[in-house]
Each structure stands twice: as structure tokens, then as C-alpha cells.
Fold this sequence. Notes:
single chain; alpha/beta; Rossmann fold; 7 strands
Amino acid sequence: xxxxxxxxxxxxxxxxxxxxxxxxxxxxxxxxxxxxxxxxxxxxxxxxxxxxxxxxxxxxxxxxxxxxxxxxxxxxxxxxxxxxxxxxxxxxxxxxxxxxxxxxxxxxxxxxxxxxxxxxxxxxxxxxxxxxxxxxxxxxxxxxxxxxxxxxxxxxxxxxxxxxxxxxxxxxxxxxxxxxxxxxxxxxxxxxxxxxxxxxxxxxxxxxxxxxxxxxxxxxxxxxxxxxxxxxxxxxxxxxxxxxxxxxxxxxxxxxxx
Length: 258
């Protein structure tokens, strides 16, 4: 217990460069803001350059935008090479980009299903595959997969999304074992129902669903985007240096609420 680091050092992301996919809006932007507050520099990626640049301007000089569509899997290595040459070698990767289809199984087309898996599973695989060699060479790093309640609970009408987010849990386990020896930690965050524009849209004109969510959440409220942001900071910080292969549930108790 001797020579403990200062508290601020233990939770600091100083000298870290994070890449956050889907970083221009919602939880991605919140994680970017929290990581900047913890001392990191952040590259946010996404399909819409204008949205990314507006978000980067709001978040300050330690955030830059690099356009990339995760479904263009062949472009992931080029993106990582570009980031490394322009901004430095990434030591944090947050696989956050996603899409969503809410339909009954009869209405879920094969193309719907493939689209969701292509974005989440193939997209995060290609990004991690491109980042891992750089992190290994650098001496370590941290990869986060943003999974979901739908990987833990049976939620109707989101079969593709549930399959994709459950795949994240498998990827966390496999990659934490494979990359751990090179000091690259791989973890996940499973957000509960968080106050984002996506949630507002989902609950619009659906008071029954809103009440159902709150009634099974012991804290009787929705989470805030920064609740996910600070969890991400912790998992990528020295304080979490021996956490590898875990999925941290940030849901106010919803997944165990009665």
C-alpha cells in the first residue's frame, strides 16, 4: 500500500488518445466530454462530418473529427493509420457506433438483420482489428464495447439489435483473453435507459413503456449520458488496470429490479 499514486492520477487519462466511434452525438459525445475532462485527447468518428465538426467545436480543442463509416470495414486500417500520423497512436478505442431496427420478427427482413450486425459486429471487429496492433506496439491500451440491456434482458421487437449487443459480450470475453498478455484490456459497458434523443424518440407517445421502465428501475429515474461517460473514463484509467473481460452494467438497477 506504499507509494499510492495521487487520486487524480489514478483516474486520469492524461497523455491518452481515445477514438470513439459514433462520437458526434448521444452517448458517444458524452463519453468524449468526460474523457476530455479526465485529460485525454479524443478523436470522434462517424458518417456525418458536419455533425462531428459541430460536436468537436462544442467539446473544445482536445477533440478532433475524422469521418469514417464503420460499415466500410476495409477502411478501418486506413483510418487508424491516418489518426496515428495526424494525432498520435490511439491507446483507447470505444466501439459505440450503432443503428437500430424495431420491428416484429415477421417484419424484420434479412437486410434489416444484416444491416444491424454489419454496423455493430463487423464494424467494431474491423476497428478493434485495426487498433490492436498499434496498442500492442505501444505497450498497452483499452478497448470498450458499448453493449446494451438487450444483451441481458428479453426485449421484444429488437431481435437484430439484441443479437448484435450479445455478440459484443462474446467479443469482450474472447479479446480480453487474447490481448491481455500484451496489456490491452477489453471491457464493456451495458447502459440502461439513458436520457438521450434516441430514448426520447422511443418513448414519445408511449407513456406505458416509460412507466414500465421506471417501475422496474430501483432508482426510479433514467440515467444521464455522463453516467456512461464516467464509467468509460474509469474503465480506461489506471484505477481499472486489473479489470479485463468485464461488462459493467450502468442501469440504476433495472436489470435486477423487481
